[in-house]
Amino acid sequence: MGYGAAAERVQQLFLEGRRGEAIAEVPDQLADEIALCGPPARIRERLGAWRRTPVTTLVAMTRDPAVLRLLAEEVL
């Protein structure tokens, strides 16, 4: 995906037990490309972009039932 050097650095830090530093090293652009994160308006915007791709499965991870309801309303 074009983030090989960053992935190697993240892995190195993680394997050294430096989890916080590893998380901080994940490029924001990578996270934005592979995840729907942020406030509802941002998720709506990004979901529209994902709908125009071959992606057919969306995995939702949250502990907040309100977030799941919001996502279900947007997807359906």
Set down the secondary structure blueprint:
Blueprint: H1 4-15, H2 19-25, H3 28-34, H4 40-51, H5 65-75
First and last CA, distance: 29 Å
Poorly predicted sequence stretches spanning 5 or more consecutive residues: none
Summed up, the domain count is 2
Approximately what portion of the residues adopt beta-strand conformation? under 5%
Query: Which structural class should the secondary elements be placed in?
Result: mainly alpha
Assign a percent range to the helix content: 55-70%
The helix/strand series, from N terminus to C terminus, equals HHHHH
The number of helices is 5
Radius of gyration, taken over Cα atoms and rounded to an integer in Å: 15 Å
Shape: globular
The major beta sheet can be summarized as: none
Descriptive overview:
This protein has 76 residues and is mainly α. The protein is built from five helices and no strands. The chain folds into two domains: 1-34, no CATH class; 36-76, no CATH class. Helices cover 64% and strands 0% of the residues. α1 (4-15) runs antiparallel to α2. It is globular, with a radius of gyration of 15 Å.
Index terms:
76 residues; mainly alpha; 2 domains; 5 helices; 0% strand; globular
Concise overview:
This protein has 76 residues and is mostly helical. The protein is built from five helices and no strands.
